[in-house]
Amino acid sequence: MSTADLGLPVDVPSTALFTDQYELTMLQGALRAGTAGRRSVFEVFTRRLPNGRRYGVVAGTGRVLDAVENFRFDEGVLHFLRERRIVDDRTLEWLAGYRFSGDIWGYPEGEVYFPGSPIMRVEGSFAECVLLETVILSILNHDSAIAAAASRMSSAAGDRPLIEMGARRTHELAAVAAARAAYVGGFSSTSDLAAGFRYNIPTVGTSAHAFTLLHDSERDAFRAQVDSLGGGTTLLVDTYDVAEAVRTAVEVAGPELGAVRIDSGDLLLVAHRVRQQLDELGATGTKILVTSDLDEYAIASLAAAPVDAYGVGTQLVTGSGHPTASMVYKLVARAASTDPRAPLVPVAKKSTGGKTSVGGRKWAARRLDAYGVAEAEVVGTGEVPAELADRQLLVPLVEGGEVIAREPLDVVRDRHAAARAGLPLSATQLSRGEPVIPTEYVHGGSGS
Amino acid sequence: MSTADLGLPVDVPSTALFTDQYELTMLQGALRAGTAGRRSVFEVFTRRLPNGRRYGVVAGTGRVLDAVENFRFDEGVLHFLRERRIVDDRTLEWLAGYRFSGDIWGYPEGEVYFPGSPIMRVEGSFAECVLLETVILSILNHDSAIAAAASRMSSAAGDRPLIEMGARRTHELAAVAAARAAYVGGFSSTSDLAAGFRYNIPTVGTSAHAFTLLHDSERDAFRAQVDSLGGGTTLLVDTYDVAEAVRTAVEVAGPELGAVRIDSGDLLLVAHRVRQQLDELGATGTKILVTSDLDEYAIASLAAAPVDAYGVGTQLVTGSGHPTASMVYKLVARAASTDPRAPLVPVAKKSTGGKTSVGGRKWAARRLDAYGVAEAEVVGTGEVPAELADRQLLVPLVEGGEVIAREPLDVVRDRHAAARAGLPLSATQLSRGEPVIPTEYVHGGSGS
């Protein structure tokens, strides 16, 4: 894929600078020490879910594949590294030829995860793998945090559609990724045109309070909008007096008015009043969209209200209290020498004070109970027990540097819905709790 | 400035799709209704600071100027809008010629702000101004949230330098903006190479646990790093046993070892022990860098510890609990007709249930007490009182579509330090409280 295919509004000529400097200085040190070529296994995992959350959602995998494919050090980047004396000439020369040539396995995008789940596994020389740490974590930590919030909101919304409207509350490009992650988590559409362009997500939007205020009266504004967008449009009815606005809206658009939007006030109360008023005016098919500071709890509290759709902004793009996942990228095994036949040695940080890891290259499988419901996330090294062989979670994503697992976003979205449906029902309770299934570790014979 | 000058790793051919769809449908409605040309004033402000915060920090202004200059609808974008039938042909034709030709005033970047501060004011036709809502808010809301956290952390750190290390915890491009905002807020450097490239922020970094684990022993790893980066490097000493690592580090690098980094454990305790050990080994000039899950409170709690520098990641890039500012972009005045001589009419949303605004084009000034310390943020419409005339906060940023206020980031950083120093001392207390100065509204005669 050419970098141009990454799409507007941003063309990324290279992802190679989405990198912490220490990755390059480690490379330099390893090249000099003769250890850069040791075969290595890095894994992405999290030690814990955000406090109170029952499951995590893997999102961003597709973006990681794009980033790895476009991780190249062109002349502009090399010039910068040389001029700033970040690494020496030998390292610059090595970087100039960089192409990831290893293998990446991972949980398929949309899958759920738990503490310790080996969400992604990157294998190759130490040199080629160590450089990918930051860009992989940036993407997975951001996108998974948003998708997890989206998933909870979509559980709470049930069959009612959710619109992603948070672009204005986050970095302009994080917003595009957030709209994508929200779609994976179950949202139906986005207000963000860049996300529509880049990922073909359905886009929606009609008008803001400014449109009403621009005109000499609310009636003029509604007339202008209906003239322009037709009677099936959504009119915003809370600029002045809601009841008067609803009356005017139905007068202007007729009882076939598509929808009204309520963006402030006591949504539960206002939605009931507006529904009653619309029905009395004969606009029984007119829908009600609410959009004011919603999160999963507010959505759930409106379950019994006559609301047809939700627009969610701030709380979606900020992960509803958890704007990042805490995934890390750790070396878990490496060869004892650069000999290609050298066996892998499991490695792990061992100091006291937390942040310890489990060494060794891991597999993972989800064990089901007699009813087919997930009962444990089993993570192990060595041989996979026969009874779990067909429940394994990691799939190949990149083979010998070639991306082999691109897939449409709708497939990912459906996978997430299915994965969530396979968890115990309490997974979708919004109340705080432990991970809905435990993680069990199995240490196999071969150790790596 | 050409779009190419926006710099790697991302070339933004256009910012025009960082836009919520409703801005385009409002444009279409206004074009059809004949109201699109009404002179309009939009203002960016926030109704409240994040809960407990004493002041806000304006950041992102420079990025807004880039975004406005590059807000163009090229053929690829127009094709998308046409194909998806987002707007009609007349609107597409209007968009094809879009260049912002109005004026933008704002608080200079780095300045502090309070509830109601008119942080930015955009004036021009309704059509040209309404389109900029999302991209302006995305940038200011994200960058200001990060800068506010950075400012609190730099207050807490005093003279000790702060390193931004959060790229892996946020979207890969949000990370670049976050490093920039952190620098504005008082950080000294970043680990993010893209931020070094794009904004010329000093970059730092040496090694991670993976480098130690790659080698056959900690000693081998330290030797490899010192061979590569010299004895002035920073060695990471908490992979296995800290005391043993410190001893090995000084043996390998000699007492002129630059620094050691501690990334886990009880930092207060470990820092004291490591300092004592270093001193006993004669490495009295070796500095101690700590980097484990720090926020402004943890930094403050280490004030008496023998720590020389702090590296901050997650809590910086997530705004230390407040990952977004709540700035809005509201129409506050517009002409009664498209006649260029038509006077401006103040406008504001008026429904009950919160989210009301103050209409009219505003000025702002910071009133000082007899000691020269800020005592009130005065926001008004109409004439500026003579005694506040030279304390006004808004400066011209764009004039007739031309950006006139680009400035180096160091100027912005110094401005923030000066602005914060001009606040009452309690501004820098970390405890929760009200905004450190009140906002006073003055309604002048002319009303707009």
TrEMBL record, chains A, B:
A GO MF term: nicotinate phosphoribosyltransferase activity
Entry keyword Phosphoprotein: yes
Keyword flag Ligase: yes
Catalytic activity: 5-phospho-alpha-D-ribose 1-diphosphate + nicotinate + ATP + H2O = nicotinate beta-D-ribonucleotide + ADP + phosphate + diphosphate
Keyword list, A-Z: Glycosyltransferase, Ligase, Phosphoprotein, Pyridine nucleotide biosynthesis, Transferase
Principal EC category: ligase
Protein EC: 6.3.4.21
Post-translation changes: Transiently phosphorylated on a His residue during the reaction cycle. Phosphorylation strongly increases the affinity for substrates and increases the rate of nicotinate D-ribonucleotide production. Dephosphorylation regenerates the low-affinity form of the enzyme, leading to product release.
PANTHER family: NICOTINATE PHOSPHORIBOSYLTRANSFERASE, NICOTINATE PHOSPHORIBOSYLTRANSFERASE PNCB1
Described function: Catalyzes the first step in the biosynthesis of NAD from nicotinic acid, the ATP-dependent synthesis of beta-nicotinate D-ribonucleotide from nicotinate and 5-phospho-D-ribose 1-phosphate.
Record family assignment: Belongs to the NAPRTase family.
Name of this chain's protein: Nicotinate phosphoribosyltransferase
